[in-house]
Design brief:
Elements lengths: L8 E10 L2 E6 L5 E7 L2 E5 L6 E5 L24 E9 L5 E8 L1
Antiparallel strand pairs: 1-4, 1-5, 1-6, 2-3, 6-7
Length: 103
């Protein structure tokens, strides 16, 4: 639901991220840590590289309902994955709203 009127075209992006991925990382000391814990790793963009249009000049009170289906790849740990979605201005790329939820 749009809480206020917005002038411009808005797009939305749906991403999958994963935490607690153990792998090599070059440290500031120039040493490699083979057991570094990587977090917030982008695993996939569910609805394309730049998302999809959601509205142009929406009015306060307008609503949108969107559904996407996505299957996690083998080896991804669903307990460590999150859905990150955000709405942004298609012209300025300013993020208007973002949300992160666990599986």
């Amino acid at each position: 639901s749009f809480l206020s009127t917005y002038v411009g075209t808005l797009k939305y992006q749906v991403c999958i991220t994963e935490d607690k991925i153990i792998g090599a990382q070059l440290m500031p000391t120039n040493q490699i840590d083979p057991n570094y814990e990587h977090n917030h790793v982008l695993r996939a963009c569910v609805n394309g590289s730049f998302g999809e249009s959601i509205a142009t000049d929406p009015l306060s009170g307008d609503t949108q309902s969107l559904t996407h289906k996505f299957k996690l790849e083998t080896g991804w740990k669903d307990a460590d994955c999150h859905v990150v979605t955000f709405i942004y201005d298609a012209t300025t790329y300013e993020v208007i709203q973002a949300e992160k939820v666990s599986f």
